[in-house]
Fold these 2 entries.
Entry 1:
Amino acid sequence: MSFISSSIGKKVAMSLSAFFLISFLLLHVAINLLSVVSAEMYNEASHFMGTNPVVQFIMQPILILGVLFHFIMGFVLEFQNKSARPVKYEMKNNQGNSSWLSRNMIYSGLVILAFLGLHFYDFWIPEIQYKYIAFEAPDEHRYFAELVHKFENPLRVGFYAVSFILLMMHLLHGFQSAFQSLGVNNKFTPGIKKTAWAFSVVVPLAFVFIALFHHFNH
Amino acid sequence: MDLKLKIWRQKNAATKGKIVDYDISEVSSDMSFLEMLDVLNRELTEKGDEPVSFDHDCREGICGSCSLQINGRPHGPDGGTTTCQLHMRKFKDGDSIVIEPFRAKAFPIVKDLIIDRSAFDRVQHAGAFISVNTSGNTQDANATPINKGDADHAFDAASCIGCGACVAACKNASAMLFVSAKVSQYALLPQGQVEREMRVTDMVSQMDEEGFGACTNTGACEAECPKGISLTNIARMNREFIGSNLKS
């Protein structure tokens, strides 16, 4: 049996892709927070990310592959795990032995997937259209205005907020769990769990704050 | 006390099972859960009905035979005990109790509440052993000094009785807690070093072949384990498995 086809190998792959996506999330929230501080700084950072060839043609494809890998592997594992118990219990009482978050990662993940669909529709597709289909002239001042425009619709802001709450729930279990999958469970584990908890709460709430800030201030 | 029992009845592996209701009265709170089932079976036998088949052996919490899912929890509502150690004082007069077998693809039902747990045996046969020279000059195990912490952790892991509560509790029917306990008890000791890398890969491979699910770190197995086997064993098995694959 090869490493990646084993149950542990798949979990290791999930953990590594999760850590990669978590590091991207940190970069993303840092750039988005600039929009609250200064429109100019946000435009500058976005222009760099949107035009730098390393970011565009190396990091971006790796990111897309990372996202796809994490979701596909998540579905594969969910399917295999479900098939390990073909006959369900008449009565199952899980409340006392595990958290709701840990048992429902697939559902929080599906909401995040739906959000990513909207996110691609909102930001990624217009970017492709702007740069590689319409071949419009580079405008380093457009990013902030586009961001503010996207947060005008209260329905979109609502879905955005709900998605990030689900991301928080996904991270609350997933972040610390990724360490266990990689075999890290030692004297540092309590500290890791606290750090992972803080990240899982602060980063998604920062995204929600940014959306609400622009919705109510512009 | 009077109780309403809802028990899974299934003639054999090939037939479909169903929950059957039984009323049982004058159950003493001092009875063990298995004694209560003994009383029910005596009543059923006296009426000419088929008694409920269930597994049991030592009735003192060390053999791991008496594996029942009681009101949705492996070994019932009491933590850190097996079904045979569960007493009827944990229930109230008029309670309804749902009794099912542990459910997993790798644990097919033999009859009623009896399941076939030979998948665990096959996982153990794949690597849970050490090679010792038995030609007459076997070294005394006590001649090898072992760090106290390692010895304690190995002993804790070795206290797993292989009851299958971890599989029953896990939403993925994963056997990782059981397998990791067996991997750990040898990996921590000098006697287990010779087959260390082969052991973890072979046991994990057999575990996957048997059809158990993967671990999603919900912690349900640790919470329901009657012997308190810790999740640190799963982390150790993951390390052993990654290390073994990197070396090969």
Note: Chain A has one domain: 7-81+105-217.
Entry 2:
Amino acid sequence: MDVSQYLEIFLDETKEHLQNLNTQILELEQDSENMDTVNEIFRAAHSLKGMAGTMGYKRMQNLTHDMENVFSEVRNGNIKVQPNMIDILFQCLDALEGYLANIQESSDEGTDDNEPLIKALNDILNGNAGADAPKKKEAADAGEEKAEKADKKEAASDSKEKWQSIKLTDTEKALFEKAKEEGQHFYGITVYVQESCILKAARAFLVFKALEEKGEIVLSNPSTQDIEDEKFDFDFSVIVVTAESYDNVVAAIKSVSEIEDAFGRELTEADFGNSAEAEAEEEPAKEEVKPAAEAKKPETKELPAKAGDKKPAAKPVVNRTVRVDIEKLDVLMNLVSELIIAKNSLVSSTSGEDTHNSNFNEQIEYLESVTTNLHESVMKVRMVPIESVVSKFPRMIRDMQKSLGKKMELHMTGEETELDRTVVDEIGDPLMHLLRNAADHGLESGEVRVQRGKPEVGNIYLDAYQDGNNVVIEVRDDGNGIDVAKVRDKAIQRGTITAEQAENMSDKEIVDLLFLPSFSTKEQVSEISGRGVGLDVVKSKIEALSGEVEVKTKLGEGSTWIVRLPLTLAIIQALMVIVGDEKYAISLGSIQTIEDISPSDIKLVQNKEVIQLRGTVIPIIRLSDVVDATSSKSPEDNMVVVIVKKGDRLAGLVVDELIGQQEIVIKSLGKYISKCKFISGATILGDGEVALILDANALI
Amino acid sequence: MDELRVATELDTTQYIVIKIGEESYGINIAFVDNIVRMQHITRVPKVAPYLKGVINLRGIVVPVMSLRLKMGLEDDVITKATRIIILKLETQGTIGIIVDEVREVITLDSEHIEKVAQDSNKSNEHVNFVSAVGKTGDELVSLLDLNTVTLETE
């Protein structure tokens, strides 16, 4: 059956199930007695298994099958939920995500069997979950150590059976013992490729594949990586463990074309040397299976990494979705834009004349309400709740809690807040950075917290809410806050600012230095954060989405990172102004107030014009100078000053006249005119004229 | 009818003949999207002087340049005959050029087109905008090299 057409649905649904599992298992950890949760998990695991089976992903199916077994036992009350069981389950979810990533890349699940996990699951089933949580790192280390005490078999390297030169370690020995118990065979085989063969690596790959169908490849010489890169002559050697007979295995190898020959035999105990310690390790032998399987991991993991920045095309959406081609939406969006322009032109054509005809006005009002509604509903089609992004954070915090050794809790509100899909897809990484920062840099360790009279468990809050035309996402912690003095010292030490500059900078400005590239104050670089890539990336990413980020902090009490994102990118509310004889639009989002200023109020500071407004000194920018226009006003007249805000900085833009507020459709100026930095686009007015949109942020 | 037959038989190209001052220029019709009357152009600040600004072409914002200024001639005098020719180019996208007058569409076969050597010394700069000269009857039409014309220069 050709299932490729279902691949997309499979991917989407699997992601939904995995996300669901993540959430439910987290819940299970909190409340291990909740049968509803267990049932939900069981159902999700069961559907996963079924889907993976239908699509022919055997490894995925095996893993989910074992997970399902565990849940089934939990559901029947035969097994109690234990912390390390939760750990294993999370690792299983990670492994499943790994499969999923592979499938998304190449529609193949990859070759990782995840045996340690399956074994751990079975151990849980067998009731000895206590001690056997796979300790990946330790096991791998142990494996390496032992590999060094390798046996010598060089003597045989001249013969055709080159595999004898493969160094067999205790790890393999242990495997061998286990295999023997299970009635499997160990074969050492050297495969010769025909010298005329052009694609040696491809042939070798086919051999590997053939062997993997029969059993498992324990070792190869050269390494699989080298073989893949064609770093071998015309032969390579493998050690295989399989239940099949030797003849069958060799036949499988020879069935691959352009394979000259294969030599080998079954390994006996003698091949493993007779080191004393090997004898003594009969008991823990079982455990040693892991390193070997583990050792395979890096190779399989590397493949997706090599494929470059693979990015899931679509984030999982947890609710029921309607899939709509985004291009169709764009078309719809453009139509609405046109409609709004038409409406504007109707409005402007009536405003000048006498408006006796009330029926006509009614019609216009009606049209206006229709276009507004249409606009809103089209926007809504593009909106998805940020839940699809933030729902992975509890799990992340949970993992970090373990890796950092700090106790912390994540409180989230407003997950249902909706944002444009393009924004939602991009916002995940910046938020993750901020949360990691809060967990790593922000929160103090438990002891310090207790000393300071705070509860031992640190709190991180993620609040999302809509604020006018913006969506605000706040990441807040009750940790240490940012030490301004430390940042200042660091900045001076790094030469980012001079000592004199530092003197004149406000705390706020100092804190903003954190957003500069490669600036990290944490002395110890940890795995979680602090490699100097972070806040600057967060900032640029958010700005690319036309949003902004700022931080408020109080030493000892914590920091709040505020991310402000526009609801929509295509239609904005703007203030129309006149400069000279030209019309310009300024986004309403950046405007604070509009002031009437007498020319005598202008003071000069460092040769720049400023005004004082309610105690704040605000630099003013004469737009007529900026756009090379001649102001229509005489210098003695009072000036209309539009106060705009970028972050905490204010500036006053001097305009000649105000027209009013208007909903405008943003149009691109095209690539031909791109040099003008402070023009962010154009819009078409009701009379068909084009007005330019001033980017207040670029002016400040 | 005669013309039609010629057009199908020979390797021919159609050109729109425009006037800048007294000279006639030909623009390959394949790149012409549209010809519109002169309309209000919104000036864009801080761009090259020959870029006059942008216009609204049925909901799309299109940049407009002055062919005269680009060629180093004096600024356009807008008359009733002034037109904006909207070109669709592969690299530059959609762009409008202002011309004094649009006269006719001519069909030239390859025999009547003569390539001109590129002037290596740039003393007479606007000559380089011309890629070939076409003969129609006893008139000569300079054929514009649109890529050079619309190339961004400071």
Note: The two ends of chain A are 62 Å apart (CA to CA).
